[in-house]
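Holo prediction — calcium ion.
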Amino acid sequence: MTPAELLLRRYAVQGLVAEAGRIALDYFSRKESLGVTMKGAQDWLTVADGAVEDFLRARLAALFPGDTVIGEEGGGDPSNAVWIIDPIDGTANFARGDRNWCISVGFLLDYKPTIGIVAAPALDELYVAQRGQGATLNGQKIAVSGTDDIRRASIELGWSARTPPQRYLELIGRANAAGCSIKRSGSGTLGLCNVANGRTDAYAEPHINAWDVAAAIVIVDEAGGWVNDFFAGDGISKGNPILCCTPALASQLSDITGIA
Ligand code: IPD
Ligand code: CA
C-alpha cells in the first residue's frame, strides 16, 4: 500500500468516525431509544451498538472494497488490510448515561497496527494516530507521562466477566502493594488513550478483545508508550492480555501484572 493510500484511509475514516460519533450521541441523548439487553453477565448491548457498526461497515465497504472488517457485533475475517471496529466501547457506561464511552476504529496493515481513530463524542474528544506520524487529541500532539516512580503511578486495571475474580483481585493486590494508585473507568479503549495522553501511567487487563485495543495501541505507540505484543498468537481473533504504560515502568509493571 502506498503512503498516499494510507493517508487517504486515515482522513476518510477520521470523517466516518466523527459521523458515527454523532449517530451514537443522538442515541445517548435519548435514553428511551437505547433498547438495552444483556449478551451475558455484565455484557451490555444497546441498539446503538448495532446501528453504529452497520453504518461503519457499509461506509468502509463502499470506500475500500478490498479491505476486510472485523466488528464486535458482526465478527469478520482477518486479512493483510483489515479494519477492526468497536462501535461502542464502554457500553455499560453508555447504557447508564455515563459519558466515558467511545467509538474505536483501527487498521492493521500486514497484521501491524497502523491507523487508530477513537472518538469519545460525549467528552468532545477525538484521537488520531498513524504509525510513524505521531498521535493527536483534538489536533494537538500527545505524549505519555514519563512517570518513572511506581509509588506515584496511576494504573487502570480493566475487568470483564471473562477474567476470574481471583486473577483480578491478585492483580489489584500486587499493583497496590507496589505503591500504585488504581482505577477502573469502564472503557478499555479510553483506558489506553488515557495512557497516551498522560492522564494515567498504565493500563492492564488479563483478557481484552482486539476491537477494544486495535486503534488505541497505535495511539499509545505513537505517543511514546510501551505496549506488549498484543497481536501475538491468536490475539486478533481470540484476544489476549494487554499492558501498556509509560516506558520507564514497563519492566516493573510486567513483573507485577505477569503480562509481557
Ligand atoms: C469492554 C470495556 C471494558 C473492558 C472489557 C471490554 P464493551 O468492552 O472496554 O472496559 O474491561 O474487557 O469488553 O463491552 O464496553 O464494548
Ligand atoms: Ca469493547
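READOUT: Residues 3-28 form the longest helix (26 residues).
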